[in-house]
Design goal:
By secondary structure, the protein is of the alpha+beta class. Helices cover 33% and strands 30% of the residues. It has helices at residues 14-19, 21-30, 40-49, 103-115, 169-185, 197-214, 224-239, 283-297, 311-315, and strands at 6-11, 54-55, 57-62, 65-70, 72-77, 80-85, 97-98, 121-127, 142-151, 154-156, 188-192, 243-250, 253-263, 266-274, 302-304, 322-330. The protein has a six-stranded mixed beta sheet, with no helix packed on it. The longest helix has 18 residues, at 197-214. The two termini are 36 Å apart.
């Protein structure tokens, strides 16, 4: 086979996908718009914990070099077969990976391989504005529909870690009042806890559940498979320097937890929780303020609040960015 020619394959065995991880890691690092949600450990852990269908991942190679990866699975229902992305439901951004050099031909090979699969609908979800999937071709044999999906508010980070360059003055005043209120109860301290993933997750699960119990609901971290997923993936993300996990201690009590990521100049606020007994001290706000300041110190240019239009996000100065969804169907 020509070392420069493209060839595609459909990976159906989890073991084969696992075997491609070295090339997958290298491809992920070459794709500047990729997020932590496309990392091999994130999606492999998702598959091991959920596996809701049959694996149907498209890999595109140039010789022995992996240059494109579309991690999908086939979900069968009464409506037929749907091709859906790995990571769905726990991931705020989903995308394919395509090497920068030769994107057009790699994308065409990816679509051509995808057409060979038996599906009624091929759905590419939660595509951020720079997603590679938004540039995939649509051949005459397919129809492609693009629809708006989730809103992900983002702060453009500017200035110093005092937040004056990017966070509105009113929110900064509220943050100072929250910090003062916490210190009146007892010394308020924030510690980075990604090096102790099990310890951190124990507190996160407890505090997240406490928040939702007040509302009479369980919360997304209540499901055993979701907890198992995070216990598997967080130590790996921490080892690769991507995880950002903070715990807030007020007077000797862990009152808040923040779980996020930082990679390639972008910070992501993934999920958190706080003790409702400390609601007046706003543990969540204190932790978000700390996470933004740490992102600025690390040289990040963006802070992503991820999916949802919750009002608190806009009080930090975030503006909407819209995810989109592509749906391929076959021409009758």
């Amino acid at each position: 086979m020509n070392a420069h020619s493209l060839h595609a394959e459909i990976i159906r065995a989890p073991e084969a996908l696992e075997a491609s991880c070295q090339g997958w890691w290298e491809l992920w690092r070459r794709c500047s718009s990729a997020t932590p949600f496309q990392m091999p450990p994130w999606l492999m852990a998702w598959w091991r914990c959920f596996a809701p269908g049959e694996l149907a991942t498209i890999a595109v190679w140039r010789g022995s070099r992996l240059v494109g990866l579309a991690p999908f699975y086939d979900e069968q229902s009464a409506q037929g077969h749907r091709l859906l992305p790995l990571g769905i439901s726990v991931s705020d951004y989903l995308d394919v990976l395509i090497e920068p050099e030769g994107q057009e031909s790699i994308g065409a090979a990816m679509i051509d391989a995808g057409r060979s699969l038996a599906w009624q609908s091929w759905e590419l979800e939660e595509l951020h504005p720079d997603a590679h999937a938004l540039a995939l071709p649509c051949p005459d044999t397919l129809c492609c529909r693009r629809v708006d999906q989730s809103v992900c508010p983002v702060i453009e980070l500017r200035g110093k870690p005092d937040l004056a360059g990017c966070v509105p003055a009113r929110r900064r005043r509220q943050l100072r009042r929250a910090q003062a209120a916490a210190n009146r109860i007892g010394e308020a301290t924030i510690t980075a806890a990604q090096s102790r993933p099990s310890y951190f997750l124990d507190h996160l699960f407890r505090l997240h559940a406490a928040c939702w119990q007040v509302r009479g609901e369980a919360g997304v971290l209540d499901h055993p498979a979701v907890r198992r997923f995070h216990r598997e993936v967080l130590p790996i993300l921490a080892d690769h320097g991507v995880a950002r996990c903070y715990l807030l201690d007020i007077g000797g009590i862990v009152a808040g937890a923040y779980y996020g990521f930082l990679d390639r100049g972008r910070a992501y606020a993934y999920i958190g929780g706080f003790d409702p007994e400390f609601a007046e001290q706003s543990p969540g706000s204190i932790l978000i303020g700390h996470a933004i300041a740490e992102a600025i110190r690390a040289g990040a240019s963006e802070f992503h609040f991820l999916r949802g239009r919750e009002s608190y996000k806009y009080s930090w100065g975030a503006v909407d960015r819209l995810n989109q969804k592509l749906v391929y169907s076959r021409v009758p």
